[in-house]
Design goal:
It is built from 15 helices and no strands. It is mostly helical.
Length: about 325
């Protein structure tokens, strides 16, 4: 349990980095950042795949198809939604909306995985979910107050960013549950090799997306974007490979290790570490201390996670069979 929590914490710290990419590259389209990140992830995974080639050779065609599905939904589509949202709404608002993932995943997992993991009693789980939801509400309220103080704020643009974030939430509700299913069904497989397999399977999809966006920009866009690497190629390449290494590969490895050690409903709540990390990074870039309401929200989020870790799954009663 303790090692699983540490792995989830490490994944959250590294995944928080993906929220600052669009803030550091505001002049780059969200689609280019999404495809660029996973091209970098795939290229990083290739030499790692060579090192794990004997393990990867044991994967079946169905395993590779599953890795491609996870890569498409949990990587490319998720980050496409998220980067688009951050470009329109800034960092904190999408970060806090993504912060609803612990609640969404815990509820979804408790409905679908009770027979496998045991059921987390709703009455015992409810206080932790309420604390997490209250914490997210406090931080969201503080961010809305910040927006109201900005005379140039475009609330329709922020609202669109919020809607796009909901798409990211949907993608990342599906991803950890489906990923945990595969890991639980293959306890003898290496979580590191599975993370590498997802990177390799994602590479051709990301390359097709990158080339497709390049073609669209050159032929259909009113003002073609300077391709292939944009106006700041050094910054773009460095950031894409840094995020690809730390957030995509190492973060996925840590998450896979946590998923093999902890019940899915509890792992889902530990995504709150990503929310806290992303919020801290965004506030550092903004150069401001968190307002009191944000601080209260952070305390509530942490309290909710700690409360949830005290809840233990209860096995379901065996089905009765007629004599």
């Amino acid at each position: 349990m303790f090692r699983g929590i540490l792995f989830a914490l490490a994944a959250g710290l590294m995944w928080g980095l993906v929220f600052i990419g669009p803030l550091l590259l505001p002049d780059y389209p969200a689609a280019l950042q999404a495809f660029g990140r996973y091209v970098a992830f795939g290229l990083i995974a290739l030499p790692l795949a060579w090192m794990d080639r004997r393990t990867l050779a044991q994967f079946s065609r169905a395993d590779w198809l599953e890795a491609a599905k996870l890569g498409l939904v949990g990587n490319i589509l998720y980050y496409l939604f998220l980067a688009s949202a951050i470009a329109r709404a800034g960092g904190p608002l999408p970060t806090m909306l993504i912060g609803t993932l612990p609640v969404v995943i815990a509820v979804t997992s408790n409905l679908r995985d009770a027979r496998r993991d045991g059921r987390l009693p709703w009455l015992k789980l409810l206080p932790s979910l309420a604390l997490i939801a209250a914490g997210i509400g406090c931080v969201n309220q503080a961010e809305l107050a910040h927006l109201r103080a900005d005379p140039d704020a475009d609330f329709s643009r922020y609202a669109l960013g919020g809607l796009l974030t909901i798409g990211a939430v949907a993608c990342w509700t599906w991803y950890p549950l489906r990923n945990a299913d595969w890991l639980r069904h293959h306890p003898d497989r290496s979580p590191r090799a599975w993370a590498t397999a997802q990177g390799v399977a994602t590479l051709p999809l990301a390359l097709l997306g990158y080339l497709g966006w390049w073609l669209w920009s050159a032929t259909a866009a009113a003002e073609p974007f300077p391709m292939p690497l944009g106006p700041r190629p050094g910054v773009f390449l460095g950031l894409m490979f840094a995020i690809g290494l730390f957030a995509s590969w190492l973060g996925t490895i840590c998450w896979n290790e946590a998923s093999q050690r902890l019940p899915t409903a509890l792992v889902g709540q530990l995504i709150v570490f990503e929310t806290l990390s992303a919020l801290a990074y965004a506030l550092l870039l903004r150069g401001t201390l968190p307002p009191p309401l944000t601080g209260i929200g952070v305390v509530l989020l942490v309290a909710g996670v700690l409360w949830a870790l005290r809840v233990r799954p209860e096995p379901l009663a065996a089905d009765a069979h007629p004599a």
